[in-house]
Amino acid sequence: MRRLHACLSAAAAVVLAAAGTTALVAASASGATPQDALSNRWYAAAPYLMPLDNDPPDASAVMDATGLKAFQLAFVLAPNGGGCSPTWDGTAPVSSDTAVKSTIDTIRAKGGDVSVSIGGYGGTKLGQACADAASTAAAYQQVITKYGLHAIDFDLEEPEYENTAAIKNEIGAAKILQQNNPGLYVSVTTAGTADGTGWFGKQMLLEAKSQGFTPNNFSIMPFDGGFNGAASQTSALTNFNSILQSTFGWDEATAYAHEGFSGMNGRSDTGEIFTQADFQTVLDYATSHHMDRFTFWSINRDRQCSPPDNGGRTSGTCSSVAQSDWDFAKYSVKFAGVTPPTGTPTPTPTPTPTPTPTSCKPAWNSSTAYTGGTEVSYEQHNWKAKWWTQNEVPGASTWGPWQDEGAC
């Protein structure tokens, strides 16, 4: 499954820039189905959907149940084997993709549309693999052209955002794409902290300022950092607003108009719990402050676990809180300014027996090198490696390489 793809040259990217070809015209020329853009509010409300992993739900069923019209498809990465061409999850080349395009066609047939997210928490990012901003942009332009995109999301987080050269490439690429695709909706998503965002997030903002790049929004992810419900999240959003003001010289209202929220529904990777009530509180904050974006990770998780586990584990396919299917998607619909259809009320949480712990994986060893996806056990919990790691203790760091899979 690993394939090596050569980067497009910087010269080719310059030719692309000179042409000023829009995504819609390019899509028509390539045989992709042209799609009228939705209002930007829908792209701003689009929750994340993994179309090839984590038991992807039927997008059309979600649309019917909630009124949702847009999805944020994740993630486009560099090939796992190396190179500067776009792939889905590092393994499926965009150039030969039919599976994701089928999902997009289904969504568009119902009057919806998609944005595509690049980056994320694992894998090698194109900003790391490509030589410069121009070749990075050329790789992303392939994605825009193939799918006729009107929106794109740069999810810049660990470990990429610790790489100064990679972030320079990503921000430079985002600026090029914005210039070459008139009307393209561009969001930039990064880690959230109680203070708004951390040192690397602030360096990313300074890079954007130095390049004269302003996206539709900068969004933070206030979870996996010791957060505790909506109050801690809205506090972080307030602090992030101050950072945007001081960095770009904006007033408060302008900063909010360029600010976004990207949450995590249910149980987070570090065991925080965000309920429907928390989402409503943050939604009220976002709308009252006229923020530009309200999204969450993810639609794949927007359903109750079976059997319900009352927050005992974090899953990629369910929320670990009591809910009806697609409860959290309805907050995105509300942010877009639409009233969701009335459905089954959210179930009342009921106590369930503590599940029998699963068997423990092989014990973690400090001298062993682990590749992404490898499972180990440590202190009566199973852990899964998010990327290559060696001698990093599971659970020692919130942003570390290990994901807690629960007791064993």
Fold and architecture overview:
By secondary structure, this protein is α/β, with parallel strands linked by helices. The chain has 13 helices and 17 strands. Strands 1, 2, 3, 4, 5, 6, 7, 8, 9 and 12 form a ten-stranded mixed beta sheet that branches. Helix 8 links the parallel strand 6 and strand 7 (185-191). It is globular.
Summarize the model shown.
The chain has 13 helices and 17 strands. It is an alpha/beta fold.
Instruction: Give the helix proportion (percent range).
Output: 25-40%
Task: Summarize the helix and strand pattern as letters.
Answer: HHHEHEEEHEHHEHEHEHHEEEHEHEEEEE
Terminal residue distance: 32 Å
Beta-strand content estimate = 15-25%
Q: Please, how many helices?
A: 13
Tell me, what's the shape?
globular
Mean pLDDT: 88
Pairing-aware structural class of the strands and helices?
alpha/beta
